[in-house]
Amino acid sequence: MKLFGNSKQSKYSKGAVRKKPVGEPSHMESVIQEPMPGRQEHPQEPTRQYTKHTSIFDYAELEPSERRSRMQADYRSTPVKQRKKSRRKKCIRTLIALLIVVAVLASLYLVAVYSQIPFIRKWRDIYIQTAMSTMSHQWLATAFIPKSVIDECVQRRDDMLQSQINVNSTDPPTLATQTEATEPQITEETQSEEELAREHFYEVFWELDRDSAELYFRQHPDVLKNGYDHIRINESGLNQSGTSIYTSMDEQVLAIDAENEVLLVRVQLGGSRGVLAIAKDPSCLHLCPSGRFGSSGQHAGEIAQNNNGLLAITASGFDDPEGHGNGGLVAGFCKCDGEVLNSRHRGWGIKRLELKENNWLYINDAPNECGDDVTDAMEFEPALIVNGKQLAVSDYTALNPRACIGQSKSGEILMIVVEGRFVDSPGCSVELCAEKLMEHKCLTAMNLDGGTSAIMWYDGAVVTRCSNTRTPEGRYLPNAWVYSYKDGTE
Predict the structure, then answer these.
(1) pLDDT tens digits, residue range 67-77?
(2) Are residues 315 and 413 in the same domain?
């Protein structure tokens, strides 16, 4: 027997390692699997399986009570690395979207500010001029638009004013000649007194649509109780809707005063509403100063009432520091009833509107000498119509409340005021006012002080809204164009 050697050990000898057969549990596993004495075995609940939702619309299908728990479970079931990657992608997508939005907005801004496309340039000029023509809202232009662009727009308007230098009125036809040329031949032998009065009424108010007028008179017989020569209708109040009478130009009639030969109609200019007053007797027109001229202005209605006026609108501008002027200091030359109240003119390119002794309106350059035959005169800009021709004022595009005055070829005084700075009436350009006056055969017309000063007063009340609702009667004015009652009686 060998005492030493490398002979194999018996599987039962000391130190031998017993290999566990495949599938046989180990000792510890058998111990763990054996239930402990006195302990009741509870069946293990099955693990709840969640369906991963990838869209918010999937969660919307769940009940509110289950939606939150399901979203939390889906979030926990997502690996951390995957959640970080998802957040990173989301941030990148958000950043790209913001960059695209910024790039688009920047492109639109550059196009809006610098483009020379006619349509864009037109509305850019309107925006700039509308903002710059106010005293308190110029920042709407200066805060967003470069100074060079604003200066260019303003310069074009100034160039337009300079182009009107030496464009002045010539002598119009006399009123007598004009009247003789248009007066129809009416004989008493063929027509009764009432028929003569009716024909004279429609001769004076040639603008009226006869059918709509006669229908209104039949519906309101009291209007004719004193005959056609004494018709007096007034439905021009701010809270009134006007009459059912229309003109041949499809303008609604607001008021008729046959004795004083005044007609008020509603006009719509570029989406804004206004009133056009047609006063037939130019000898009743005067430029009247405030009763406190030199120290403070007055409302247009006050000026009219102090001068036996039936109708009045704004006239000259005035010194208005930061929008707080009181109308006491008139801007530019001013002459009322033959008396010069201010001899300083405003500069080259400014026009002077003159009312002469022959009852015709003339437009002249402001620096030119004012003749002795001029009874009333004031300065403003721009001129709209000279010698029956509409001037180019397309660069004067601001949408603002407007006031203009003119005279037709037959001598009628045309006063127009357009409301502005309201949602339903933003205002209009002076070009639209000129076009409306041309429809009424205007021979001479000029723009007056607009903005908050634009106001029309008729027969005891304002008939247009002031853009500042806190001052419904309008601003204090240094003067006003007043159409007085005929024969000096109300």
Answers:
(1) 777 777 776 66
(2) yes
